[in-house]
C-alpha cells in the first residue's frame, strides 16, 4: 500500500514556504546581517512568498502573505514601503491582482489606487509594466463603476 502522495500541481509549495520562514526565524539577529542585505527582512520574505503564491495560482495565500508583510512583529521586520516606493507599488499591484482573482473587486480597486499613489514620482519600467498588467485584468470588468473610474483615472493616452 502506498502512502499519501504529494499534490501533482505544486508538490513542494508549502514545505518551501515554511522552510523559508523557518530559516529566517532561526537566523542570526538582523543587526548581524551584512550591509548588502539591508533591504531583506521578514516583511520582504512575506512579499516574495505572496507574489510566488499568486504566480502559482493561490491568491488566497497570496493575500495572507502580502498583508502579513506590513504586520510583521516589529518595525524593523515590517516591509518598509516608504523606503522602497517602487517595490511597494509593485507589491500593492500584485495584492490588487490577488483580490481581483478572489472576486473582491472593491478591495482590488482600492489597493490599485494605493499602488498608483505609491508610484507617483517614481519612474520604473517594472512598476509601470505591473500596473499595466493590472489595468488589463481590471478592464475585463469595466462595467463596474469603480473599475471604470480607476481605468479612466489611470488612462495614459
UniProtKB/TrEMBL annotation:
Gene3D superfamilies linked to this entry: Tetratricopeptide repeat domain
Protein name per Swiss-Prot or TrEMBL: Tetratricopeptide repeat protein
Amino acid at each position: 500500500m502506498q502512502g499519501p502522495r504529494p499534490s501533482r500541481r505544486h508538490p513542494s509549495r508549502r514545505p518551501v514556504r515554511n522552510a523559508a520562514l523557518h530559516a529566517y526565524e532561526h537566523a542570526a539577529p538582523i543587526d548581524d546581517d551584512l550591509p548588502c542585505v539591508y533591504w531583506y527582512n521578514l516583511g520582504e520574505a512575506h512579499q516574495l512568498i505572496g507574489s510566488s503564491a499568486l504566480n502559482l495560482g493561490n491568491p488566497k495565500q497570496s493575500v495572507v502573505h502580502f498583508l502579513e508583510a506590513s504586520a510583521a512583529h516589529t518595525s524593523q521586520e515590517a516591509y518598509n514601503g516608504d523606503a522602497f516606493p517602487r517595490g511597494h507599488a509593485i507589491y500593492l499591484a500584485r495584492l490588487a491582482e490577488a483580490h481581483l482573482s478572489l472576486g473582491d473587486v472593491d478591495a482590488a480597486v482600492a489597493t490599485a489606487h494605493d499602488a498608483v499613489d505609491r508610484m507617483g514620482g517614481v519612474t520604473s519600467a517594472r512598476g509601470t509594466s505591473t500596473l499595466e498588467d493590472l489595468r488589463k485584468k481590471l478592464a475585463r470588468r469595466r462595467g463596474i463603476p469603480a473599475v471604470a473610474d480607476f481605468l479612466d483615472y489611470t488612462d495614459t493616452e
